[in-house]
Amino acid sequence: MDILYLLIPVSLLFVFIIAAMFWWSLKSGQFEDLEGPGYRILMDDDKAQAPEPEKRSAIDSDQDAASDK
Fold it and tell me: How far apart, in Å, are the Cα atoms of 68 and each of 2, 43, 56, 60, 63?
């Protein structure tokens, strides 16, 4: 029974801390746009990029020049 004298005030302290954190999140705009992030995932902003032509190294061009002779 004596433990209730400790647990009740501690639980009330936790309730007030959680309520204060929730109130702060409401006032700071954490819940302003609930649907936007979900739609942002679905929007495909990636455009197909054409593959860049392969850059030939100097060794490859030397081998091609030798084979042409």
Answer: 98, 51, 17, 12, 9
Which residue from 20, 16, 18 is spatially nearest to 28, judged by alpha carbons? Answer: 20
* Calpha distance 47→37 (Å, rounded): 20
Answering whether pTM is above 0.85, one says no
Contact 16/24 with Cβ under 8 angstroms? no
From the list 3, 7, 26, the residue with the least C-alpha distance to 15 is: 7
- Name the E strands within the chain: none
Give the tens place of pLDDT for each residue, 33-56: 888 888 888 877 666 666 676 666
Structure tokens at 63: 């081998």
